[in-house]
Write a structure and sequence with these properties.
By secondary structure, the chain is an alpha/beta fold. The chain has 14 helices and twelve strands. The strands form three sheets. The protein has a six-stranded mixed beta sheet, with helices on both faces. Strand 9, helix 8 and strand 10 form a beta-alpha-beta unit.
Length: about 425
C-alpha cells in the first residue's frame, strides 16, 4: 500500500471520529425539536389489526386549548342538589311500546330524594325573609314521614342549623335511624288525624312556636311547613320542570307523579303546561288516599275511609311518603292543571318493585313503584309511540324493614309478565 493510500485512510478515519462526536452532541437537540414539532399538530394514523378502522392519535398534553375552569367545582353540598339524570326504563318501554322515562331524583346529592330541592328552597326563602340566621342557634322544626326530614337534617348541617323532626311511629325504622345519625332530634308519634294537636305536623308547629317564645333558649324556632309553604312547589317550578323540559327537548306527552304535599306535581305542571298545551298531567295515588277521587270527581273520599273499615289514622297503605286525605296549599297550586288520576294498589306497587329490580336493576322505594305502575297504565291507555315521564323518588334502602319486607324473594323474573304486575284483580 502506497504512502498516499495510507494517508487517505487515516484522514477518512479521523473525519469519521470527528463526525461521530459531533452528531452525538447534536442529535439530542434534533430529537427534541422533532418531538416538539410532532406535538404541535402532527397526527399519526394507524390501523388496528382486523378492526379495519383508522384511528387518529393526537397528543394534546401541552395544548393551550384544554379548558381549565375552576368554577365547575361545586361549592358545598347544596350545589349537589338538582340536575338529576333522566333515563329510559327499558323493560317498561319495550313492554308498552311507549318511551317511559324516569327522573332519577334519588340521585340528589344531599338527602337522596326530590325533597332536597324543597328543603333547600324553604331554607333559602326563610333566610331571605330574615327568619333564619346561620350559626345562631336557630332550629328548623318539621313534621314529615321521613324524606323531607332527611333532606332538612342534611342541609341544616351544611348551612349552620339544627333540625327537629316529628314523624309518625309507623314509618320505616331506617328513616328515623338515619335522622339520628345526621344529628337531628327525632320524635316518633302515634299516628293521629290532622285535627289532633299531637299529630306529627301540628306537634312540629307547636314546638317551633314554643322555642321562639322562650327567651332562655338560643336562636329561634322555624316551622318549615312543607305542606303549605309555597317554596315547595316553586322549587319544582324553578328546577325540576325546566330540567325535564330541557332533557326531553320539549317532547313529552304525559307527566305522571304521586303526591304527598303536592309540590312536585304542581310545580312541574305549572312550568310544563304553558309550554306544552297538549301535555297530560296524571296523578298516581295509592290505595287509602282520597286524592284520586278529588281529582276524578271533586270529592275527597276513599272506600277504605268508610266507618269501621279504616286500619290506620293516616292513609291505609303500605306505601310511604305519598297519598293524603286532605287538600294542601301546594296541591291546590296546580290542581286545576291535573288532567286525570290513576289508582294503584299495594299489590301492584309490590309487584312493580320486584319487576324493576329483576328486569332493570332499579332498586327504589314504594312511592317510585306507585309512579311506575301509573306510568304503565297511562302508556297502555294512550297507546304505543308516546313519551311519558315519571319520578323515581328515593332508594329502596329506606324501605327495607317495611315495604321491601313484603316484596318477597327476588329471582330471575323469567315467569313474570307486565300483565302480572298490572293484574286488575290486584287492585282494590
Amino acid at each position: 500500500m502506497g504512502y498516499s493510500q495510507r494517508l487517505y485512510i487515516s484522514a477518512a478515519f479521523l473525519a469519521g471520529v470527528l463526525l461521530t462526536l459531533g452528531f452525538k452532541d447534536f442529535y439530542p437537540d434534533l430529537e427534541r425539536r422533532f418531538r416538539q414539532r410532532g406535538r404541535r399538530g402532527t397526527t399519526t394514523r394507524t390501523s388496528l389489526g382486523d378492526v379495519g378502522d383508522t384511528v387518529t392519535l393526537q397528543d394534546k398534553t401541552d395544548s393551550p386549548n384544554i379548558e381549565r375552569n375552576a368554577s365547575r367545582v361545586a361549592d358545598g353540598l347544596e350545589a349537589c342538589v338538582g340536575n338529576t339524570p333522566l333515563f329510559k326504563i327499558r323493560s317498561l318501554s319495550e313492554a308498552t311500546g311507549c318511551e317511559i322515562l324516569a327522573k332519577a331524583e334519588f340521585l340528589n346529592g344531599a338527602g337522596g330524594s326530590p325533597k332536597d330541592r324543597v328543603a333547600l328552597s324553604m331554607i333559602q326563602k326563610a333566610e331571605e325573609d330574615g327568619l333564619l340566621t346561620p350559626n345562631s342557634g336557630d332550629i328548623i322544626y318539621e313534621g314529615t314521614v321521613g324524606s323531607t326530614g332527611i333532606s332538612l337534617a342534611t342541609l341544616c348541617r351544611a348551612r349552620g342549623y339544627l333540625a327537629h323532626i316529628c314523624m309518625p311511629s309507623d314509618q320505616s325504622t331506617e328513616k328515623s335511624s338515619l335522622l339520628l345519625k345526621l344529628g337531628a332530634q327525632v320524635e316518633r308519634l302515634t299516628p293521629a288525624p290532622i285535627v289532633d294537636p299531637n299529630q306529627f305536623v301540628n306537634r312540629a308547629r307547636s314546638l317551633a312556636a314554643q322555642h321562639t317564645a322562650d327567651p332562655s333558649r338560643p336562636g329561634r324556632g322555624f316551622f318549615a311547613d312543607q305542606f303549605e309553604n309555597e317554596a315547595n312547589w316553586k322549587a319544582h317550578y324553578e328546577s325540576t320542570g325546566p330540567e325535564i323540559y330541557r332533557q326531553t327537548g320539549g317532547r313529552l306527552d304525559a307527566f305522571v307523579a304521586s303526591a304527598g304535599t303536592g309540590g312536585t306535581i304542581s310545580g312541574v305542571a305549572r312550568f310544563l303546561k304553558p309550554r306544552l298545551p297538549n301535555l297530560r298531567v296524571i296523578l298516581a295515588d295509592p290505595q287509602g288516599s282520597g286524592l284520586y277521587n278529588k281529582i276524578k270527581f271533586g270529592v275527597m273520599f276513599d272506600p277504605k275511609e268508610r266507618e269501621g273499615t279504616r286500619r290506620r289514622q293516616q292513609v291505609d297503605t303500605i306505601v310511604e311518603g305519598v297519598g293524603i286525605n286532605r287538600v294542601t296549599g301546594n296541591l291546590e297550586a296546580g290542581r286545576e292543571l291535573i288532567d286525570d288520576a290513576v289508582r294503584v294498589s299495594d299489590d301492584q306497587a309490590l309487584a312493580m318493585a320486584r319487576w324493576l329490580v329483576e328486569k332493570d336493576g332499579i332498586f327504589v322505594g314504594s312511592s317510585s313503584c306507585v309512579n311506575c305502575v301509573a306510568a304503565v297504565q297511562v302508556a297502555q291507555t294512550m297507546g304505543p309511540g308516546h313519551r311519558i315521564v315519571t319520578i323515581l323518588c328515593d332508594s329502596g334502602m329506606r324501605h327495607l324493614s317495611k315495604f321491601w319486607a313484603r316484596v318477597g324473594e327476588v329471582g330471575d323474573a323469567g315467569d313474570m309478565t307486565l300483565g302480572d304486575v298490572m293484574d286488575p284483580k290486584c287492585a282494590s
